Amino acid sequence: MDADERRMGRAEARGLRHAKELEGHIGILDTFTPTALGVLACASGIYTYLGVSSLLDDSGAFTFFAAISYSIAVSVGIFVFWSYLMRLLPAVKTAGARIGLMASMALGSLAIVAMSSWLNAAALAGAAAVEQHLANTVQEYQTSLERAHQVAVSAQGLELDVSRVRQSFVDLGEQEATGDLSGIAGRGAVFRVLRQKSQELETLETQIAAQDPLVDRAFAEGNAILSRMRALTVAQGSVEDRSVTFSEEAVRLAGIITQLRQLSVAPLVQRAAQDLRASVVLPELDGSSDAIRQGQQATITSVLEVLGQRAQTLEAAAQQVIEMPAPAEVGYTPISTADAVIRYASNFAPSWAGAIAIDLLPAVLVFILMVVQSAIRSGREGTRIEDSLTLAEMRAAILAIRDVEEASRPSGPVPEEYEGPPRPDRVSEGPKAVGSGPRPAG
């Protein structure tokens, strides 16, 4: 039993020495921890000021003081919040108290992110995020421009379909002129019908061909604007000034895209195909006999059937172009640096991590203190209070006892038998009875 007690005593002594060692380290760290926490809070306040300044439109004195006030409030709030947790959370012992304080720490961390971290991210990566917004807008405009040009070029391709139908009517007219179609040579009623439709198609073909240089010119101008917009995304200087110029170029490019959409001749070809089938002016039959006139009528009926088929084919080709996906409506919206870092947060994860870390880094110190304080309490567990007293604490206790003795002495004359309260250096002698001195010899 004595051996077990000696082993337990040695374990308690080792735990006590370990606890005192940790307390010494904490004492040293406490000398500069508040200063370090203040530096972190001030740094966060500076970046918060830069973020707030980017959100405020006015640059006057009132706006300056407003931004300064907000950043100071953030710095003070961060310093006080983490100072409370560094002192209180490691000191509490019950599970309920720890859970409550940790819940408060989580809620406060969310508040810090909401009032400071996103503004820090705006200051760290705001300009780059706005440039990212400009680059994405350029890509959207380029896609829309290319789509509009593709639709316009596809519509210009209908010229070949119109030419093919026109040439078929020209060939039929030549056959009719030689008598190979109706059996009657000459330029009679059938020839005039064929000639009428071939001229309509020739006019449509000329209109389509006239659009080619307009389409090419619009596409070239759009590409030139895109080049200037790309240059603005990476140019030197303030991103706000570049955004203004970028917005002006975006308006011009939007007009070019609209122009390309209007240059598409597919609706024109579709309407012409419908008119080709519906609006046929039938000439008076000019045959010299009933048999000849009946032959002309039969030939005109066949020509109208062929005309309907050609018109249907041409209309179907135009409908395919019309049903092509239209270019997306693109518009440039200026964006602030704070909104940009939120919208493109995934592209600036390091900046967000740094902005949040500068505010929430003290949480790591809180957890470190919790672990150390728990180790200190574990080392002191089971030891008596007199075993844990240091030499300085014992000296302070002795001085306190002497002060109590001085205060407890009577103010009047002291009887001879009164010797006052026992002194610490005489505790081991035991109590001494009143009048217990040497008696006179009897």
Automatic annotation (TrEMBL):
<feature type="compositionally biased region" description="Basic and acidic residues">
    <location>
        <begin position="420"/>
        <end position="429"/>
    </location>
</feature>
<feature type="transmembrane region" description="Helical">
    <location>
        <begin position="97"/>
        <end position="119"/>
    </location>
</feature>
<feature type="transmembrane region" description="Helical">
    <location>
        <begin position="26"/>
        <end position="50"/>
    </location>
</feature>
<feature type="transmembrane region" description="Helical">
    <location>
        <begin position="352"/>
        <end position="372"/>
    </location>
</feature>
<keyword id="KW-0812">Transmembrane</keyword>
<feature type="region of interest" description="Disordered">
    <location>
        <begin position="406"/>
        <end position="442"/>
    </location>
</feature>
<keyword id="KW-0472">Membrane</keyword>
<keyword id="KW-1133">Transmembrane helix</keyword>
<feature type="transmembrane region" description="Helical">
    <location>
        <begin position="62"/>
        <end position="85"/>
    </location>
</feature>
<protein>
    <recommendedName>
        <fullName>DUF4407 domain-containing protein</fullName>
    </recommendedName>
</protein>
